[in-house]
Amino acid sequence: MTVTPFGTRLRAAMDSRGPLCVGIDPHAALLAQWGLQDDIAGLERFSRTVVEALAESVAVFKPQAAFFERFGSKGVAVLERAVADARAAGSLVVMDAKRGDIGSTMAAYASAFLDPASPLFSDALTVSPYLGYGSLKPAVDLARASGAGLFVLALTSNPEGAEVQRAVREDGRTIGATMLAHLAAENAGAVPMGSFGAVVGATLGDLSTFDLDINGPLLAPGIGAQGATAADLPGVFGKAVRNVVPNVSRGVLKHGPDVSALRDSARRFADEIHEAVTA
């Protein structure tokens, strides 16, 4: 059976719904802000409300796996339902699990999220390449076979990331630039866009010294609560801004549990992003 690559599906979703990605991050403080208990019932109410409010309008959801895994198997079951419901309503799901390992362990991580037979099957997965880019090969291979995608940590928004990502190799290239080059090679020739993206923080300012033109998506956390705005995107991403998938989590989620308020907030962010990237 022929599968449509993630990059193709993502481009279509971004063009029809806009590029906004909304996080599903049910941390304890946010559950409390919603008036929910920090338990399975609160977790389920939170995730169900977010999906039901936004799944028919946003292009991408990004659930943070850790906030579900902390409740054990029952929390993972809630995550499974959230993923299935979001995809059934037409949204793509990027599982934010940041997996990274070697050999059979990496293959097992990939199977959990990128095998269509898995109950956690997602359209894409965030992965860490800092055991060497080659360690991601099992995930790359399975993503290609299943029509899924990857988002590789390249230039992250946390200040600590610079000590690794901005470190300079013997060839004079930084680690972050090396990861971008690997992704460009993975996406070579893909039309309309490759399936192998990078995580690049929207809070990082001028990145003109990096080649962000990887012919693939750039997942950009940092809009909203972390301080970046939609207006910052062209200055950070330059000519690659059309392939940016800006992620907003707390900026939208803080408006729950009111469904109308969640929708209004997501719509405002989507409109601001559209104006910024098409100006």
Fraction of residues in β-strands: 5-15%
* Strands, count: 8
Give the full name of the CATH homologous superfamily: Aldolase class I
H/E series, N to C? HEHHEHHEHEHEHHEEHEHH
Rg over alpha carbons: 18 Å
Q: So how many helices?
A: 12
Q: Give the biggest sheet.
A: 8 strands, parallel, barrel
Domain Orotidine 5'-phosphate decarboxylase: 19-265
Active site: 98 (proton donor)
Family: Belongs to the OMP decarboxylase family. Type 2 subfamily.
Catalytic activity: orotidine 5'-phosphate + H(+) = UMP + CO2
How would you characterize the overall build of this protein?
- It catalyses: orotidine 5'-phosphate + H(+) = UMP + CO2.
- Residues 19-265 form the Orotidine 5'-phosphate decarboxylase domain.
- Belongs to the OMP decarboxylase family. Type 2 subfamily.
- Pathway: Pyrimidine metabolism; UMP biosynthesis via de novo pathway; UMP from orotate: step 2/2.
- Keywords: Decarboxylase, Lyase, Pyrimidine biosynthesis.
- The protein has 279 residues and is an alpha/beta fold.
- The protein has a single domain, classed as Alpha-Beta Barrel (TIM Barrel).
- The protein has 12 helices and 8 strands.
- It has helices at residues 6-17, 28-33, 40-54, 65-69, 73-88, 103-114, 137-146, 162-165, 175-186, 233-237, 250-253, 259-278, and strands spanning 21-24, 60-63, 92-99, 124-127, 149-155, 196-200, 218-220, 244-248.
- An 8-stranded parallel beta barrel has the order 1-2-3-4-5-6-7-8, surrounded by 7 helices.
- Helix 10 (233-237) links the parallel strand 7 (218-220) and strand 8.
- Helix 3 (40-54) runs parallel beside helix 5 (73-88) and helix 6 (103-114) packs parallel to helix 7 (137-146).
- The mean pLDDT is 96.
